[in-house]
Amino acid sequence: xxxxxxxxxxxxxxxxxxxxxxxxxxxxxxxxxxxxxxxxxxxxxxxxxxxxxxxxxxxxxxxxxxxxxxxxxxxxxxxxxxxxxxxxxxxxxxxxxxxxxxxxxxxxxxxxxxxxxxxxxxxxxxxxxxxxxxxxxxxxxxxxxxxxxxxxxxxxxxxxxxxxxxxxxxxxxxxxxxxxxxxxxxxxxxxxxxxxxxxxxxxxxxxxxxxxxxxxxxxxxxxxxxxxxxxxxxxxxxxxxxxxxxxxxxxxxxxxxxxxxxxxxxxxxxxxxxxxxxxxxxxxx
Length: 285
Prior knowledge:
2 domains, 4 strands
């Protein structure tokens, strides 16, 4: 019988510390909701899940970028729709002016409406923007050069639609206005001029239709990209959750077992610490 080194108490104390540490980690996982709270919990899992988190954040921003792109293309297409309506009205006026039954006064009134339509087409093309980014260009020269055929592309607006630098979409931006559509070269003053203007207006209508088709193609691209990004984010988040999140059922089971072991080790240690009292009983004999 020894009193200097109570090995039963030492053994009980060591096991108690082990059980208490396990219990603390289990409580940490239950309270945080994460299976991995530090690299020591699962070094490989932490590295993989951090890469996935980085990808998820990139996907979130890509989704926001795509939504901005959808709004931008809708803005441009809406403006072009109104330009189309004005061109259709202008063609009606051209056909009307080509009729020889109109007096000079009536023809002047038709010409006045044509000029107002051209002014509005210019206003729409020059002021349509998205977050201060012009969606249509104005040709830098006073007059377009010979051989200019509308629609002529100015440049592209590049959208970042993914979480890597290679995932981009170029939305085409065109020169668009009365000068760029060659509508500043027509007149309704005479029957001959009005007949000649019909072909020019029809070409302008086709040019605007081509630009609208370009915006529509970009919009369809963005909508499909949005769907794909959403699915990808969901799958990556699911994978990250399986690695990082706490399985509450497993951890509650572990907590129950560790809690019972801790209480048992406390009881055993109390009994082990009472063993040296037997020496006192020997001294009393």
